[in-house]
Amino acid sequence: MTLYALLGLSALFAAASWFIPYEWSPDPAARFKIAATQVKRDRDYYWITVHLKKSGQADHDLMKPVRLIPGLLDEIEPADVTFAGSPETGTNEIWVKFWIHRDRTFGPLFLKINDGRLNVKTSEAMPAIGDAMMRTFTSPRW
């Protein structure tokens, strides 16, 4: 009986984390919302991949650069950008990948996209991630 209760509780937690949005009130000027963030440690660096989904009717403006902003420091250009969509619907999803040194990950991380700003990470320190290990986050509280 206890095993079934634990399995039910685990399934409920998994379902809740699947349906709860990354951020409750994303900036509408960004035109996209964060679906998840994947972080992979590579010695003293991190690969941070932000998965974005379209949140309105307006498409992504390719003339406006996407940048990661570590706290109050300068902006970081993406190492890679992948778009998904069709000619009929435009760009529905974007994956933006950044290469960032661990010294620049202390404090919040923001994503500047279109005319908006999204919260990637709101905590001060990076979570414990082993070298060559990867974690996926579904909220900015990491």
Folded structure, characterized:
There is one protein chain. This protein has 142 residues and is mainly beta. It has one domain: Sandwich (Immunoglobulin-like). Helices cover 13% and strands 42% of the residues. The strands form two sheets. It has a five-stranded antiparallel sheet with strand order 4-5-2-1-8, with no helix packed on it. Strands 3-6-7 form a three-stranded antiparallel sheet, with no helix packed on it. The N and C termini lie far apart (34 Å). The mean pLDDT is 90.
Number of domains: 1
CATH architecture: Sandwich
Compute the average pLDDT.
90
Beta-strand residue fraction: 35-45%
- Gyration radius, rounded: 16 Å
Summarize the structure.
Helices cover 13% and strands 42% of the residues. It has one helix spanning 2-19, and strands at residues 32-42, 45-54, 67-70, 80-86, 90-101, 109-113, 116-121, 134-137. The model has no long low-confidence stretch (mean pLDDT 90).
SSE diagram, text form:
Blueprint: H1 2-19, E1 32-42, E2 45-54, E3 67-70, E4 80-86, E5 90-101, E6 109-113, E7 116-121, E8 134-137
Observed structural traits:
142 residues; mainly beta; Immunoglobulin-like; three-stranded antiparallel β-sheet; 1 helix; 13% helix
